[in-house]
Amino acid sequence: MAEIITLPVNRIEIMEDKMPRFITGTNPEVVERYAELMEDGVEFPPIKVWKNGYKGESEEKCFVIDGAHRLQAAKKAKKETIRCQVEDFPESEFMLRAFAENLKHGLPLKREEKIVVVQTLYEKGISVKEIHEKTGIPERTLRR
């Protein structure tokens, strides 16, 4: 199980170029709704962040794998910290991990986003089998 810690929101970034939500982006209405809930004391599940060399109290940045709406809502609600599930893996897996997480819940990805992400992953040398194993998308669908 990945470690869950509290991090300052200013130490967490969103790598737009590696996120699967490149068409839909972050929905301002969702961010606003989450921010209002946070201001009312509602606790959200931890966001998932990529460790990228995180060493405890250092000033290194972490990058969102899953939870961009929650992170932006926390900033909007002027929260100084946010609970995070910290994960560590090779950078080459970042897009696949973010894609797999964003398929599970929240604002759905557009069909075009899914297609481009799968094509990009395949071009980066990630096999159809591995994409299937991480996302649950049938191999036949991925091959199309």
Instruction: State the share of residues found in helices, binned by percent.
Output: 40-55%
Assembly type of the chains comes to single chain
- The rounded Rg comes to 16 Å
Order of helices and strands: EEHEEHEHHHH
Task: Report on this structure.
- The mean pLDDT is 88.
- It is globular and about 45 Å long.
- It is built from six helices and five strands, in the order E-E-H-E-E-H-E-H-H-H-H.
- Helix content is 40%, strand content 17%.
- It has a five-stranded mixed sheet.
- It is α/β, with parallel strands linked by helices and 144 residues long.
- The protein has helices at residues 28-39, 68-76, 94-104, 111-123, 128-135, 139-143; strands at 3-8, 12-13, 47-50, 62-66, 81-87.
State the gist of this model.
By secondary structure, this protein is of the alpha/beta class. The protein has 6 helices and 5 strands. It has a 5-stranded mixed beta sheet.
List keywords for this structure.
144 residues, 17% strand, globular, alpha/beta
Write the layout of secondary structure elements.
Blueprint: E1 3-8, E2 12-13, H1 28-39, E3 47-50, E4 62-66, H2 68-76, E5 81-87, H3 94-104, H4 111-123, H5 128-135, H6 139-143
Parallel strand pairs: 2-4, 3-5
Antiparallel strand pairs: 1-5, 3-4
